[in-house]
Amino acid sequence: MNRFGSKLQTHWDWRAAGNFMFGGTGCGLILMSAAASYPNSLPLALGLQALAFIGLGLFLVWLEIGRPWRALHVFFHPQTSWMTREGSVGTILMPLALAGLFMDIPGLVALSGILGLLYLFCQGRILLASKGIPSWREPAVVPLILSTGLSEGSGLLILTLYAIGMAPIQGWVFFSFIAFLAFRTYSWTTYLGKLNGSKAPKKTLSILNGINPLMLWGANVAPIALLLTSMFISTYTGLLSCLAAALAVAGGWYMKFTIVARASQVQGYSLGKLQKGRPKMKAPVRRKPDSFVFDQKYEKENA
Amino acid sequence: MTRYVMIADLNRCVGCQTCTAACKHTNATPPGVQWRKVLDLEWGEYPDVERLFVPVGCQHCSDPPCMHVCPSTATGQRDDGIVTIDYDLCIGCSYCTVACPYQARYKVDKPRFAYGDTPMESEEIRFDERTMGVAQKCTFCSDRVDAGLEKGLTPGVDPDATPGCVNACIADALSFGDIEDEESNVSELLAENTWFQMHAELGTEPGFFYLWDKELPEELQEKMQGE
Description:
By secondary structure, chain A is mostly helical. Chain A has helices spanning 14-37, 44-64, 82-102, 106-128, 134-137, 141-163, 171-196, 202-232, 237-262, 296-302, and strands spanning 2-4, 269-271, 275-276.
């Protein structure tokens, strides 16, 4: 296969990237906060902060659309559109979490945390369904989006708890933060490895390989090392874990901004494999609902 | 069933861009928007230089990724395979644009005219506010096809029922017709020639075929590889 004419897509810019950055963080935060506080009440500051991040992401997307006053049309296509699904999950999550926070019902907050995880999954699938962008349609992008959202959420939870004076933090929060960072390290290296083995545009690969040392060591390995160190040097636990959290959050944002706004080259055009004979074409698919599981075609083509 | 497809004969195309101009004339697209355009490829070194011209645009896929991702159902598909956009439903989120593997979609946020802010008379008359801030692309001139069918004409055969770019092609490189009809012009062309579909490996099953009879030289393959 020969491709040519690849260039950076500019339709989704920093505003779209902002949705993945802040929406992902907010979802990770609401999930981790709900888990950390359950069955007790979630501190208002934490819950509102998570919702503010999700809201900021959605607001940035709203700024990007060409017909903002038609935004409600986004809910018209749940059969196959992951954008509709993301919007729908967000629309349920927000009031549910607010009700849980203000009416002091931990069960509702927990439910909104689970929806946060679903929201993250939708974000990953939004990228995966973008067939025009090789760095997005790589299936490994889904676990990457999930793992980074969870890492950022855990990091921000630790930062916020220290900021509002609610330390010491339960041990399992640190351990799950380390586990999510390890998951992100694995997802990132898998994602990059698969892209390097694919026919992704050279520019895409050069940008992503360029940020690899920073992502791998600065945003993943260093926070893990800091967290492990903090367990042995209790005097500096707060400082080291906050530093680890800041690195994890900043690294996740930087990675998502890069993937969405900088390493999103279109695949370009190509001349295909020559064939002979009158083809039998598949009938137009019209609006057949899709399956929620991964498309086997993608897996085959990316194998 | 009818399934309209377009064929570009790369052995015939001379890269004159008349189809591009005809498309702009027919559909009144603003500057910078080319529903139909022709890529110009060149390889080799003087004096052994070769050029290849590849018309591109919406491929009216049987399984269009743009339609699946569209959150507003603005992108649809007719029974005859033509992929459509409802400008009144589209929210301009550009998800379809990044989902399209053929770079076929455009979004224009503000009115654009050939000579600055003041439209020419023709631009003023043909300006369509509905196309602002929403996705737009080649329609296979579905309005011409439908109007022709109403008059009992055959798309791809009768010019009044045929897309503007096909009518305008000076080299007879572009053809349009019903691939489900075994005796149609497009069926015969595909039966008698070697052809390819662009990015067929993505499973989109494009309704756009390219007649071509050579593999690309290795030198160009290497150059193009993952550019």
